[in-house]
Design a protein that fits this description.
single chain; alpha/beta; six-stranded mixed sheet; 10 helices; 10 strands; about 35% helix; about 25% strand
């Protein structure tokens, strides 16, 4: 289980997150939604150790990760797929995936399972990262993160700008990953995607949690939540 408790995050002197807390349990999809600039990507980077928190605590399975760095967090079982994907453009699909095994031994997730999850990557193994479509790059970024053997997968805007057929394939893949017991924290601008996948929801408003609840509560209060997102 991932827990971020009472995190305050700054960019220089400007505060971006205020006492932010979030939890994700085994096999659970948790949605983090909010308007542009609300702090969603900042929260993801804080959970991945990419940004330092002032105060608060980042915990996995009840154990605190002290002074978390990206390496420490990744070794603890938390993998981030950032919004810009950050694949290696000059390496092939197969080489990009092999890079994840430099520090992670094969376990549940191996290249074979990634190609089964994303058959298109299997067809494009020898293509360079730069030659891939946006959807293929997103599949590759998720596949590479899975080869880090995560207990928690952080997905920042995975469907942004993609064709509907690719979005549907990614939705199916996210369901399959969660079914394997991986907790997923999902940031999406399109509320329709979290509605299809998430069991719990957090709404960020100007760096603070403005609303949180389970799926049934979200559906009952959707109008109020959408007003908060669109302000």
């Amino acid at each position: 289980m991932l827990e971020l408790k009472n995190a305050n995050v700054y960019y220089g002197s400007a505060q971006a997150l205020y006492d932010f807390s979030l939890a994700a349990r085994v096999g659970e999809v948790v949605a983090l939604i909010g308007r542009n600039g609300a702090g969603k990507s900042t929260a993801m980077k804080a959970m991945a150790g990419w940004l330092k928190c002032r105060g608060g605590a980042l915990m996995m399975n009840g154990a605190r990760i002290e002074h978390p760095t990206p390496e420490d967090v990744n070794r603890a079982g938390i993998s981030l797929v950032p919004e810009d994907r950050q694949i290696f453009p000059t390496l092939t699909v197969a080489e990009n995936l092999r890079m994840a095994r430099v520090t992670h031994q094969p376990a549940r997730w191996r290249e074979r399972e990634v190609y089964e999850l994303f058959p298109r990557l299997g067809e494009r193994q020898e293509a360079s990262g730069a030659a891939l479509s946006g959807g293929e790059q997103q599949m590759l970024a998720i596949g590479r993160a899975l080869l880090c053997q995560p207990k928690v997968l952080l997905l920042d805007e995975p469907t942004e700008g993609l064709a509907p057929v690719v979005v549907n394939a990614l939705v199916d893949a996210i369901r399959a990953i969660a079914a394997e017991g991986v907790a997923i924290v999902l940031v999406e601008q399109n509320v329709r995607i979290p509605e299809m996948l998430a069991q719990r929801f957090y709404v960020l408003d100007s760096g603070r949690v403005g609303w949180e609840g389970n799926r049934d509560e979200f559906i009952r209060q959707r109008d109020a939540v959408e007003r908060l997102i669109s302000i």
